[in-house]
Amino acid sequence: MPGVNRLLQDILTATEAASGGATPLLNRVRVTQASDLSGVLDSDKEYFIDGVIDMGSQSVEIPQGGLSLAGYNFDVSKLISSEENYTMFTSPAGGSGNVLGKDYAIEVTGAASKVYDIKSATGVEAFEFARINYNDCSSLGVIDNYRQGLEVGTGRFGGKPELTLTGTWLGGYFIDTSIVRGMIDGAYSLFAAGAGFTMASRFRSNMNLDLPANASFFDFSPANFVNPSTLQIQGAIVTRDGVFNSTDANIAPNITETDLVSNWGENNGMPNTFEGGSIGVTSEATTAINAQGVFVDIVAGSWTSADLQHFDNPSNGELRHLGNTPRDYKVIADFTLESGSNDDLSLRVLKWDDSASSFVTVLDQSRQVNNLSGGRDVAFFSININTTLDKNDYIKLQVANQSDDSDVLAETDSYYIVEQR
Q: What was the pLDDT predicted at 354?
């Protein structure tokens, strides 16, 4: 019985103190059986899992004030259940508070069972776990409307450990130093978007995971993230049945590395995001020069853009930044311009500063038109310059003839690139 068990623990603690034993841990509750986690739990105590506790069909209700769980380590301290249609952690009608856990394992193995079905009481609570293993779990269940989550040193081994995030998350979720192995095959994801899921801050992971044939890493869509570059997969190692394949579309079936919310980098076995893009002259047209020394937009018969990630091409020859981070970029240009023999031409990298509603000159580079044999007199431009680009800022190129009003022709295959630095 819970009351008798607690009384015995209190007597033992008092006896140890009276006999000169160790100072009792007054804010720790020793858990040796399922009943120690029954009823209304004390949010001001840490519940210490002393051994392997078979929870049977008994759930743990996380109170509105929160719950703290700890153990020796994930080999010695475990909460287990093989019951069918079972949920280990639940919330009361008004929702739950913070959930904090460290140094134990969870094994929920029954058919149609899950680890969590919890909802935040106010929308500002957190769940944070360190050195927690999920072993052979049928599902990790649902976490709803929490402000943020944090995992450090966690593992998922066996089972189908899908975790569904639902509701509005004002913060983010960071999974650091986590490993996944031995999952059962099936059409599910480690992380899935549930009803009404949006995340205002980042979802970040550097997981080391091996997927079975049909499972996914995460099943999110761009609509689940409020801000650009907040789906951050950095330094992850992803294999499927032990094989690397960064072109595997089922790693993230409903989102790609090119989407505005994605920021994927230094990953092995899945794609990476390269913010920027290129645009070039694919057919020629004359740029009319009406006055000496006056800059005008370079004209082409056609411009062709490629590999635009977090950028678009709003008008001929322009590359526009759609995000707000990162903002540090470099512009690389390689242009061949034809004009009057020995004329001095200037090529300008021009930035539209959307916040100031004005243009800013990034760089002017001048070259003389070479007097070559035959009818082709050209100047060669090679540019590599740093700049900053905020949301809706864009780059375009202009040219001026500093010698006279001879027209200019940008030759085919002239191009420029904007890329993150």
A: 97
